[in-house]
Amino acid sequence: MESAFKALIWLSALLTGVVLLPAGSAAAAVGDLLLASRAGGATGVKGDGDSFEPRLSADGRFVVFATTATNLDPADTDAAVPDVYVRDLQAGVTTLVSRAVGPDGAKGDGASDAPAISADGRYVAFVSEAANLDPAKTDAAVPGVFLRDLREHTTTLVSRASDGATANADAAAPAISADGHVVAFESDATNLASGDTDELTDVFARDLTAGTTVLVSGPGTDPRTGASTQPAISADGATVAFSSTVTGLVPEDTDPLSDVFMRGLATGALTLVSRSDGADGEKGNAASDSPAFSGDGHLVAFSSAAANLDPADLDNVSDVFVRDLARHTTAIASLSDGPTGGKGDADSTAPALSQTGRFVAFASLSALDPADADALADVYSRDSVTGRTRLLSRASGVLGTKGDGASDSPSISADARFASYASAAANLHPEDADVLTDVFVRDVLGTLVPVAPPAPRAPAPVTLPGRFPVAPASCPVDGTLVVLTDAGDRRRGGPRSDILLGGGGPDVLRGLGGRDCLYGERGADRLDGGAGDDLLSGGSGADRLIDVRGSDRFSGGAGNDVIDARDHSRRGRLGRDRVSCGAGARDRALIDVHDTVARDCERVSRRKVRTAHAIR
């Protein structure tokens, strides 16, 4: 089958004058499966040892992996020591990566694994105990992170300080930017950057062009409370995500649970990623880890056992979530097939995202496909636009036989057409009949046909408690319906249309995005509609009602209220708000030029600006 793939690509090249990328070489049709952990040549011999930790280049042409095989390169004869290789799926060439400078440099004299590959496949970062790869590292007892330039045949130590000092403790888990010039990694070292003087694991980033190394993960209020691990880096090398059990990296993190964060290397800004919808959404209430960026950097996928990140997830099984950094939304991705697919009932981990984030691949113990009836880990991909979930760990063919061994470590190309994974199955490929773990590449999509986004969800029917004078027809909700207690509560909605109903205390209700309905009832409440066309009703009490943007309706109710209906966004048009102050004797309304105010407002201040960009 693989020789046919190569013939297809060269025939296409002759006819068109264009040499195709691996989209034609790795597979000729949707569902075709390629064995990648093999020696050079289209039909090179299968590796005689376990192969694991595969990573695909963004263009899908190269797959890098670690292996204990001894028959992939003549220089590699030690079965007990893993090495790193890269397979060119277009040319059918397998190359030893973990070696010293030169095209035939000495093979590493220690174990090498955990590879990461640049977008074009030129650079590979990896971990090695070897003491003969770079003169700067001679201690075989301390694993280091290295970078191999496959074009120039150089191998360089990455885990070192800005002054050149070699890390004085283990370094591991490299992640590499698209151009290969920035490598993030974790290390127990205490001499890599200022601010790190303990022996706990931290995350660092090294700029290989500038020759600088910075601490990414610290400090918290008490850095000695935990470790920071599992770095992921955005394609442009500007942002690093990581998991951490350190307490106090952000104010809302006061527990020792593992959370996912990201830091901008230029600004130093630190952001909590593992949280529910909203810019200030609730922090995950269980461990979160394994972050992964989309190629364009606006999404982060992660695994979490939290039960408060998505309304569809109420258990403490690990699931895969995707956080939209621009829209501040968090959605579960480890679902069965269909737009309303069911949540997995067992752990889902190890997410990988496509360039745009439309596709997410992950490993799961859940039976998310009818062909999956066992308790083995399998690899899936989900299309967030169509809701399609595909089982990837299966033999060739769209409905190929499911693997009879565990599969994990998914990686996908930028366009999500190709996915790689490691599997112990013995029924996926005709040349693989043993129980060794091998690396495979699957053509998931063939030529991707653009699909229109799904239609917006229809408003859910709403039943409101009788004491709340909010008409359901005025509040089409597709987000959250919340009835608060009589104690004074604080509650934020999400990006969708929410109904937040306060109780008797002094409530703080924030609608955020969507067409929200906020009702304070009794108490001195503060209501903030956020973006969208909202309805804000203060109820009794001295309330403060605030608008951000949109055409909103305000009702102050009893009490001396302050209603700020002025738009506070400089984007778009000014809204046309309707304001009624209610029965208070000293109400105040702050409005824009287009707003309408009732006669029950004792004091009215009208701002004169007519366009949003004129707001100061």
Automatic annotation (TrEMBL):
Lineage top rank: taxon: Bacteria
Principal subcellular localisation of the protein: membrane
An annotated Gene Ontology molecular function: toxin activity
Keywords, comma-separated and alphabetical: Membrane, Repeat, Signal, Toxin, Virulence
Pfam family, one: PD40
PROSITE patterns associated with the record: HEMOLYSIN_CALCIUM (PS00330)
Family annotation (PANTHER family): PROTEIN TOLB HOMOLOG
Family recorded in the similarity comment: Belongs to the TolB family.
Name of the protein: Calcium-binding protein
Organismal lineage: Bacteria, Bacillati, Actinomycetota, Thermoleophilia, Solirubrobacterales
